[in-house]
Write a structure and sequence with these properties.
Blueprint (H helix, E strand, L loop, with lengths): L1 H22 L3 H19 L10 H15 L7 H25 L3 H25 L18 H20 L4 H25 L2 H21 L4 H23 L7 H8 L6 H15 L26 H34 L4 H18 L8 H27 L1
Helix pairs in contact: 1-2, 1-5, 2-4, 3-12, 4-14, 5-6, 5-7, 5-14, 6-7, 6-8, 6-13, 7-8, 7-9, 8-13, 11-12, 12-13, 12-14, 13-14
Length: 401
């Protein structure tokens, strides 16, 4: 009974932090109250820090966190730096809380994936029935309300990969088939969310994520030939419905495609920000201009507070040292993935999807500043916990033999 209550509390808190508070316009409550309380609760519940925090990827990440705090001392704007650090602190606490809660607990790992799938479902419901889809069409862009247009893509990205990873952990082909049929419905609905949000990055990520994951599951998911035939039939329905929709309108009717076409004529704000961030990083090569510094450096075009690219943002704010630490984090994470792939016997499909997730995550990182988003970072850390758990379980089995 206590285990059920424990999981209910964590799932509810995660759902509130990741989606519900943001959707209701109360995101600040997550940063101020829910995240610190959840971290303290997990810290006590799991008996303090776990030794897995001192594996190479986590050590590099904590070094990156330390560097971000150190940068406050030399930041060109202390107030901007402190504001950014408060936000980043909440993200770090939430990510580490998810990691500590999930490590070596397969049920808890599944729970976090399930929460992200629930968010995916709620997003479709939110889009269809609450405040969107009723006052605009494909020719305009969804206005930023409590959820920005780009953020829809973040949730869909997480939902797609959480769905495929969790389904890969299911043993029954018939249960997988049921889940896949439900996913086809969600994927079709998410197409409209992407189109109406008119996010070019989200559209590309949506296409790559679907194609890559579908390729993986067609070759590794299902053993039964009969079920594979049904899967192909479901995919045929999905592509037929999507094709039918696009054939009913012209590309000029879709604002998203207009935004793609406009890229041919002028330098986009995103391209400008990348160049500017590289320029600022080059001028402050070793340590950068400090946390949040890029946001207040004078720019001829103001399209937001960030460079819209994780790597150039880190280079501008933390210099080559910060960028190197972040790259070392990813390098050690991939080494850990390779170790998990070598020692695992029956979780290859999960690891194939995880590897593809890492690739798309870093592709997304070239479009947005992902380390300043709870949505991106909490799922990354549960995937990290999943890899460590696979390694630990495999090593225990080998030792027992």
């Amino acid at each position: 009974m206590l285990n059920v209550i424990d999981k209910f509390i964590f799932a509810g808190a995660t759902l509130l932090i990741v989606f519900l508070l943001n959707a209701s316009g109360n995101g600040s409550l997550a940063t101020t109250y829910f995240i610190p309380l959840l971290f303290i609760w997990v810290f006590i519940q799991r008996g303090g820090l776990n030794n897995s925090l001192f594996r190479a990827p986590m050590v590099y990440f904590l070094c990156f966190v330390f560097l971000s705090f150190f940068s406050v001392l030399y930041s060109i704007d202390s107030l901007a730096s402190l504001t950014t650090q408060l936000k980043f602190t909440a993200i770090v606490l939430f990510s580490l809380g998810v990691y500590l809660y999930s490590i070596n607990k397969v049920v808890n790992i599944k729970l976090v994936y399930a929460v992200n799938i629930i968010v995916f479902v709620l997003l479709v419901w939110y889009f269809k029935y609450l405040n969107v889809g009723t006052y605009f069409d494909e020719t305009s862009r969804l206005e930023d309300t409590v959820i920005s247009a780009n953020t829809y893509g973040y949730y869909i990205f997480n939902g797609i990969f959480a769905f495929f990873i969790l389904t890969a952990m299911v043993k029954s082909d018939f249960v997988k088939l049921f889940l896949f049929a439900f996913f086809v419905y969600l994927a079709y609905q998410s197409l409209f969310i992407i189109l109406f949000s008119a996010s070019r990055g989200a559209f590309l990520i949506w296409i790559f994520s679907l194609i890559g994951n579908l390729f993986i599951i067609l070759f590794t998911y299902f053993k039964s030939t009969f079920i594979k035939v049904i899967v192909f039939f479901l995919l045929f329905i999905f592509f037929s419905m999507s094709t039918s929709y696009f054939s009913s309108i012209t590309s000029e009717d879709i604002y998203l495609f207009e935004r793609f076409a406009s890229m041919e004529d002028n330098e986009t704000p995103r391209e400008y920000h990348v160049k500017k961030a590289l320029e600022i990083g080059s001028e402050n090569f070793l340590f950068g201009v400090g946390s949040g510094g890029y946001a207040i450096v004078p720019k001829s075009i103001e399209q937001g507070s960030f460079s819209h690219n994780t790597f150039t943002e880190i280079f501008a704010n933390f210099g080559i040292i910060g960028l190197s630490v972040y790259i070392f984090f990813w390098s050690s994470l991939m080494k850990m993935w390779r170790k998990a792939f070598k020692v695992s016997n029956n979780e290859k499909t999960v690891l194939y999807i995880v590897c593809f997730y890492f690739i798309i995550f870093n592709l997304y990182s070239t479009l947005y500043v992902v380390y300043l988003s709870n949505i991106f970072m909490h799922l990354l850390f549960v995937v990290c916990a999943h890899i460590v758990t696979i390694i630990n379980r495999s090593e225990k089995l080998s030792y027992a033999e």
